[in-house]
Write a sequence for this structure.
DNA sequence: CACAACGTTCCATAATGTGGCACGGGCTAG
DNA sequence: CTAGCCCGTGCCACATTATGGAACGTTGTG
């Protein structure tokens, strides 16, 4: 409602990130704004260090380095990030599936902040920065299971979007699943968000028990084997515990 | 010169990143702006998803997750980032010193984008997002050595800031050093930028030979041993080569 | 209990961003 | 070779938009 120029500038920044390196003309088509407005916005963002002209084609714009100094608190000082790296690589080596690290964003969603790829020919593909709903994914529920009951109810009150038949439909189903997550120490998602994607996740906790993030192993549904779940769940949970411990020890 | 509100909003965003979680009052002290202006800016940034209220203390603001979807092209798809991780950990394990990954920012500076810590009691401390000049650091010169002569001259023309007596003073000194870097395959920095910090770095190249980034091992000057330089240089250069290869293979 | 400090809201003011237009350079088709 | 086109860039009168002082409500403290 306020500061339209700021909001618009940030949208432009996001568009540049998506299409970089991009020209003024391309952006005017995306936004339907006058050329001069887009141009001015780009110059301003560049002046602030958030954008820069491409070195090879100076009429194309790309994201500048300033962006890297601005990171969510969970990643600040790289404590979570650095602590997670080696355990994630180890888990990938053990399971040979893609491993993700995600952080919650204010009860809205979880965001993928890091990824370790496997070398399978068929594998899940999720980008750093991608978001997904808390209630419909293994990562989200691993985190939800460690949040106060009130927060879960707030989330339920906002409505649980369904992505297909297996997405938890109501508060009861979700709460029962969260109980199971707490009992087992890991969360599971079988095609409940993206079709054909299964995942097993566990929460990374702060010293006071607050869930800071979650690690997950995700795979195509075709490679999911129910009988291996207890073992995989334990491995993921152990990885999360190891990361929590390293973060606090550092 | 233009769009003051946008520039100011970005400064506020950066300040929040530095001090998060932070209150309106603290920010007004930092900027000397009226409370209402800061407040409005914060709400606007939050509306755009770049900021959010802290969950535990809703009067404190912190960086939102949206930021993570906006990354420089060099890191896009995380190919560099993911490719670099394991070789960096391996190098750290071999040398037990802090390892950095940095990317150049448009002939202006290099930015640290990743870090693997060692467990030494005394160690170098550089944050992700920190920037340093191209001509005065090992990382910068490792990259400069692989840029066209014209680019180096452009940089020289802009002037070479000196940080202490050992910083390269003129074009001749810098060009001679770059020749040495190309011959040896690694760059060295002995207290030329930050006092008491030594580093050995090597460039990570794209398929066409463009330098995309550089890996560096950095250590307190007290642990630098000249006789080990050839061996360390070779290890760092091998790590850079390995990262280049992994990135292209992926 | 009263004061102080803080986050939040409101609104008249003018400063600020807007976008139509025009310029110049590079590219392509005739 | 040149005419026509498209693109990035710079300008400027207009009015939309952000500004910041002042007032309000709440919290915690002496």
């Amino acid at each position: 409602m306020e500061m339209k120029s700021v909001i618009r500038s940030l949208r432009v920044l996001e568009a540049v990130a998506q299409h970089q390196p991009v020209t003024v003309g391309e952006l005017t088509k995306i936004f339907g704004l006058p050329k001069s407005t887009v141009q001015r916005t780009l110059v301003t963002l560049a002046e602030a260090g958030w954008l820069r002209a491409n070195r090879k084609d100076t009429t194309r714009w790309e994201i500048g380095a300033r962006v890297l100094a601005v990171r969510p608190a969970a990643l600040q000082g790289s404590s979570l990030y650095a602590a997670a790296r080696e355990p994630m690589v180890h888990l990938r080596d053990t399971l040979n599936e893609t491993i993700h690290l995600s952080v919650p964003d204010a009860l809205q969603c979880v965001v993928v902040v890091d990824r370790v790829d496997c070398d399978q020919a068929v594998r899940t593909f999720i980008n750093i920065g991608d978001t997904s709903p808390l209630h419909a994914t293994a990562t989200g529920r691993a985190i939800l299971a460690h949040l106060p009951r009130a927060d879960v109810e707030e989330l339920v009150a906002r409505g649980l979007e369904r992505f297909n038949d297996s997405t938890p439909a109501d508060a009861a189903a979700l709460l029962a699943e969260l109980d199971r997550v707490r009992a087992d120490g890991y969360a599971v998602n079988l095609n409940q968000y993206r079709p054909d994607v299964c995942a097993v996740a566990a929460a990374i906790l702060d010293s006071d028990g607050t869930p800071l993030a979650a690690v997950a192993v995700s795979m195509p549904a075709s490679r999911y084997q129910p009988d291996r779940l207890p073992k995989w769940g334990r491995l993921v949970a152990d990885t999360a515990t190891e990361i929590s411990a390293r973060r606090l020890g550092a």
